[in-house]
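[recover] target loaded
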């Protein structure tokens, strides 16, 4: 997803260098083109990577402030002309933008009639022209650009005219040290330095410079100069906000010695589960303590139904949560994809809790689904990894994952932490609703043992790499499982297709004979999750069905299960745990399998084509 970074400083630092390094730390969001503008030097854009942008910069590209952008196309193809920053007719007003200006066509028409000429197909460009138009009208009315007031007024007037979502940074050539930022649905963070200020779409590019940040809310505008920052609303009323200290280290966002962020993040699995559990379990009493939910204890007692809303991998964690919460806390749960829930007329009331699960905390469809729940009086909760993100701030209460920043586009460690948080929630709510102390204790103890068990799976990564090599020529895969592991089959297939571009389908093993089994032949391998649990025998029957059609089978089986090796072509063994927690172990070999297969194919594992890390558009 697009990334914004802007800088203004009076410390004699080279802004160009700061801006490019900032863009590098935003690369993980996924992008197709990049660009930078500095009032003293002009603008340079490329359809390539940030490294290419750096190569294109002339030697004398220097200055003390500027705005920079990584674009992920929404309106207009990925091209240099559509890359940001975009400018007005006079090349004086420059803008970088994340989001979509929904009324850009009518604005473009109006501005064209007024004599503006457009250089791109991008919706963003209208913003620059709109500010130019307002500035022109002000000077026609006799205004002078003293202290940036006219630029601010023009920017505010333009923002009040646009509809849609935006996170933006605007700069005016004649006032080079002033940058205006605004937020409507797309995140904006201010970084507060000493004699320098920053604007970004997330804290990553700011952290090497300062830990002091401020998050803008929707409908807010910020003005930064080297020595000052101000926040106000679109109606010009002043906003007072306290700075937040971010405690991530910049190193946390590095690869830590692994070839790819994805492998690093898979290897972090044990630590991530420990971090999600830390301080939240009282095993002796079979309790879970979730401080983030204390403020809504009474409302939680009233709810009679849960709707989990999420997208992609997070929605599969939600499906695992459905099995956990219904199976052990006995609360009716439904899982809805954010983009579906927000547009249908679901029955929601004040006895419903709508839980949004999101690593980034910014996924627009999940956010809008939560807002829809709120409109109907539901209690809204978040299971979110990114502290201070929009979902974290807009929900009534929630549970943070504590998984640390996830850089690789494909979600791995966040998925483990989401399922772990859902297991904690199951104990937390279950114990309020008749779960016995014994059952609570059993789950708590099994949860505590998970990190070591994940370590044992990670030790087998060499063997999984060999397996990936063996199957790297296959073009199609089926993933099957039942009950708790059915969502893991969906996740295994998603992981494979998104990073290796190999066709993969996840299916409930019982559904196979209703269609998917028709695809099976000697070239169509099936990954079967068949650990020892309540549906083990059923899974064995399904594997027989596949073998009868000569389909190769890779089985995920419980340690000590020797029988399955007689049936399956290849077996990956995982330690035994309670059935409810088995998804947290069983997904790990599937993540490694997808990783090694994509690596074997020489693909850009961390930045798969067409995908973005944080999906802040619909
Ligand atoms: C897949 C993946 C996506 C995300 C989805 C939701 O590997 O990463 O499917 O899970 O876009 O993102 P968050 O969790 O940030 O809301």
């Amino acid at each position: 997803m697009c990334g914004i970074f802007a800088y203004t400083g009076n410390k004699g630092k080279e802004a160009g260098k700061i801006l490019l390094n900032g863009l590098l730390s935003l690369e993980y969001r996924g992008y197709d083109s990049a660009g930078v503008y500095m009032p003293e030097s002009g603008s340079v854009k490329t359809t390539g990577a940030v490294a290419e942008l750096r190569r294109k910069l002339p030697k004398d590209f220097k200055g003390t402030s500027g705005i920079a952008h990584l674009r992920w196309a929404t309106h207009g193809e990925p091209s240099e002309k559509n890359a940001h920053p975009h400018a007005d007719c006079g090349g004086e007003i420059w803008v970088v933008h994340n989001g979509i200006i929904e009324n850009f066509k009518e604005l473009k028409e109006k501005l064209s009639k007024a004599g503006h000429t457009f250089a791109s197909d991008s919706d963003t460009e209208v913003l620059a022209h709109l500010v130019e138009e307002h500035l022109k009208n002000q000077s026609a009315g006799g205004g002078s650009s003293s202290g940036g007031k006219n630029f601010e007024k023009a920017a505010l007037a333009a923002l009040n005219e646009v509809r849609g979502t935006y996170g933006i940074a605007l700069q005016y050539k004649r006032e080079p040290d002033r940058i205006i930022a605004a937020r409507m649905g797309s995140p904006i963070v201010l970084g507060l330095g000493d004699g320098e200020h920053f604007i970004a779409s997330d804290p990553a590019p700011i952290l090497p410079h300062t830990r002091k940040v401020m998050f803008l809310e929707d409908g807010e505008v910020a003005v930064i100069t080297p020595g000052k920052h101000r926040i106000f609303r679109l109606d010009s009323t002043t906003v007072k906000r306290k700075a937040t200290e971010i405690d991530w280290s910049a190193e946390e966002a590095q690869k830590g010695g692994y070839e790819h962020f994805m492998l690093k993040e898979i290897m972090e699995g044990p630590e991530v589960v420990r971090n999600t559990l830390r301080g939240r379990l009282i095993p002796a009493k079979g309790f879970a303590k979730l401080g983030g939910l204390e403020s809504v204890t009474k409302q939680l007692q009233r709810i009679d139904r849960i709707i989990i809303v999420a997208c992609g991998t997070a929605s599969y964690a939600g499906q695992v949560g459905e099995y956990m919460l219904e199976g052990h806390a006995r609360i009716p749960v439904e899982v809805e994809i954010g983009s579906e829930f927000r547009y249908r007329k679901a029955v929601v009331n004040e006895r419903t809790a709508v839980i949004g699960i999101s690593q980034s905390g910014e996924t627009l469809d999940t956010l809008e689904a939560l807002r829809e729940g709120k409109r109907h009086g539901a209690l809204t909760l978040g299971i979110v990894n990114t502290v201070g993100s929009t979902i974290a701030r807009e929900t009534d209460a929630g549970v943070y994952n504590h998984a640390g920043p996830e850089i690789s586009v494909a979600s791995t460690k966040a998925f483990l932490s989401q399922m772990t948080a859902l297991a904690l929630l199951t104990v937390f709510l279950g114990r309020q609703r008749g779960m016995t102390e014994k059952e609570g204790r059993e789950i708590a103890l099994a949860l505590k043992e998970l990190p070591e068990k994940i370590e044992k799976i990670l030790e087998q990564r060499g063997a999984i790499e060999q397996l990936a090599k063996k199957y790297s020529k296959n073009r199609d895969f089926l993933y099957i499982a039942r009950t708790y592991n059915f969502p893991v089959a969906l996740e295994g297939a998603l992981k494979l297709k998104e990073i290796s571009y190999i066709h993969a389908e996840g299916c409930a093993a019982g559904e196979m004979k209703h269609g998917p089994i028709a695809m099976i032949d000697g070239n169509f391998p099936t990954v079967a999750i068949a650990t020892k649990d309540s549906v083990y025998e059923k899974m064995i029957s399904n594997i027989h069905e596949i073998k009868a059609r000569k389909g190769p089978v890779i089985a995920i089986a419980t340690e000590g299960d020797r029988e399955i090796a007689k049936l399956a072509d290849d077996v990956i063994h995982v330690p035994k745990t309670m059935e409810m927690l088995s998804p947290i172990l069983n997904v790990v070999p599937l993540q490694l399998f997808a990783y090694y297969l994509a690596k074997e194919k020489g693909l850009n594992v961390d930045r798969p084509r067409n995908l973005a890390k944080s999906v802040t558009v619909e």
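[recover] notes: The domain at 3-252 is CATH 3.60.20.10 (Glutamine Phosphoribosylpyrophosphate, subunit 1, domain 1).
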